[in-house]
Amino acid sequence: MVSQWAPKLERSRISSAVFSGASIGTVVSLSASGLLCKSEALGGWPSVFYVFGAIGCFWYVLWVIFIYETPDEHPTISKEELFLIYESEENQLSQKDLDIPWKKIFTSVPMYGVLFGHIGSYFGLAVLMTELPSYLSGVLHYSVEASGLLTGLPNILEALGGMMSSYVADKLISSKTLSVTTVRKIFQSIGMVGSGICLLAITVSGCQASVIIILYSLLLYVNGFKYSGYNVTHVDMYPPMAGVLFGLTNSISSLSGIIVPNMTGAFTATGNTRSNWNKVFYVTAGVYFISTILYDIFASAELQPWGSEKKEKKQSNTAETKS
Asked: Which segments of 98-199 are extended strands (E)?
């Protein structure tokens, strides 16, 4: 959707706006879940599933009514808006016009660079979203409700960091001060390395809850910079297949959702102690650092050769048809 609707020089901002919705949703869901679990009038923990299930159904109805796959299909879009979106030739192709070059995708070195960046981000997300509440309640002795609020509210800062950094990223790209690839790597590095440093700082903060919450908030703020990093590189590499590329890296990265709980369980098997949890944070910081190095070495935000070939082929066929 972003590849079809976002003008080339606004990709960072539009992508960040879309994915910031996940951060805002996290604030609402984590905060509300603790309150719903405690509410006997609403039935306790089962109400979490009923409430958010109903919200999901309502959202689906809105999606069906208002969302269109391409700008051409939108009934009220203006010619000026269409021109702005299609000013970049890359936006003129849709996935249905092309065959998916699976072999070239799986043998693309830059593609693996983006995959490493995605894995690092998802691994850290799994730790922060699924395991940190246990740390707050088990080590810092917060209640379930307080853990939900403290884990959720700082996500607003991630959305803020994502939006602010995306504006700067697009300005750097439009001014041609730096190449698109350099901009992506800078913001990916700030997001991941900054997050890793904050995690290491948490390990030496003892049980000072206020300091830990401040560091966690700072972590999420800089983490938002990744929205202008790997998160939009899929669109840069091959706009018509951005959804396919993101789906591939996201599917592989989601294995972190299996690894992280087992890793945390192994490290904390002897008790919810600060030293045991520090091991979790050390590993997570290491994943942040290593994934960033691999992304910076191998990733590219330039249109890939296999993308150029397909584009030229399609344009050639179009020209022949017109002639």
From this structure: none
